[in-house]
Amino acid sequence: MAISTHDEADRGLDVLTQVANKIRAAIESVIEGKPNAVRLALTVLLAEGHLLIEDVPGVGKTMLAKALAKSVDCSVRRVQFTPDLLPSDITGVSAYNQVRREFEFKQGPVFANIVVGDEINRASPKTQSALLECMEEQQVTVDGKTYGLGRPFMVIATQNPVEMEGTYPLPEAQRDRFTARISMGYPEPSAELEMLDVHGQTSPLDGLEPVAHAADVRDLIQVVRKVHVAPAVRQYAIDLVTATRKHPDLRLGASPRATLHLVRAARAHAAMDDRDYVLPDDIQELASPVLTHRLLPTPDAQVERRTPEQVVGELVRRLPVPDRRHS
Q1: Does residue 1 have a pLDDT over 50?
Q2: d(CA 217, CA 269)
Q3: Half-sphere exposure of residue 272, counting CA atoms within 13 Å on the CB side?
Q4: Over the stretch 250-292, which tens digit does the pLDDT of each residue have?
Q5: Where are the alpha helices (DSSP H) in 108-255?
């Protein structure tokens, strides 16, 4: 999908919004009453990112991941993370072929367009680290040989709160590779009542048909890359991230990778609103889901129950917003 003129850019955005709305409608046919979570998941997909879904068991984390994966006609693999899972169970392993008398590489589940990692924090940090290279560089290195991964490539991981028994906290480097984090929350009573009617008879995933192809997603990603980000808006994103590094309630602020993810997500967010330019509003709306899972509060802030969400919200309210004429 070549974008060389203003008219072609407009057509690209029109196609993006049409396809994105189809995918969103397909997911919402399965996930009741969570439009914001569905939109954010789709935003991360179009921003070439990875999604972390965190909440207590039973609120639909895995269902959201499966619904997004099934809405796009592409290769999907699921990994159930357990304490005894090995890194080679994820990346793959070189096995000796006695017939051919040579080693051959057996691909692991990361060799898919969408990888659903269920309860990622139930695996050991060593196994979790097997995803670091593929999430950042879209490649896997085994026994000194590097294998490229297909595109699009997205990891959708679910995890339970670390206070729960049998869980390991994700390392900082692992959390930093997730573009955004979603907390599902409990459904509204009306949505839960409808869920009893629908889910009580059959799984809604059974009737979910793909509404887009992997090639469509690749084309849409190219459209998102062309969305304009004005210098003032870029500086606003940098100012917001820099402020987290200086805040007295945080012992670890957001990284430069966080700035990159925030701007990429803002591009996708703007494109889904049929805009070819990013507004400060896009940065503000995505600041919490993109930044908070990367931040570590100080011990004093934990005692005072000051959360990263509160800190980011305070920074969004406090920092001056660029004039719309310059954005």
Answers
A1: no
A2: 15
A3: 24
A4: 999 999 999 999 999 999 999 999 999 999 999 999 999 999 9
A5: 125-128, 132-137, 172-176, 189-199, 214-225, 231-246
Maximum alpha-carbon separation in the chain: 69
Q: How confident is the model at residue 144 (pLDDT cuts 50, 70, 90)?
A: confident
Q: Which are the contacts of 202, defined by CB distance < 8 A and separation ≥ 6?
A: none
Give the whole-angstrom CA distance, residue 182 versus residue 31.
Answer: 14
CA distance 156 to 154: 6
Question: How many C-beta neighbours within 10 Å does residue 104 have?
Answer: 9
Find the helix packing angle between 231-246 and 308-318, rounded to 10°. 130
What structural domains and CATH numbers belong to the chain? 228-327 (1.10.8.80)
Residue found under tokens 């965190």: 54
Give the DSSP H/E element, type plus range, for residue 79.
Answer: strand 76-80
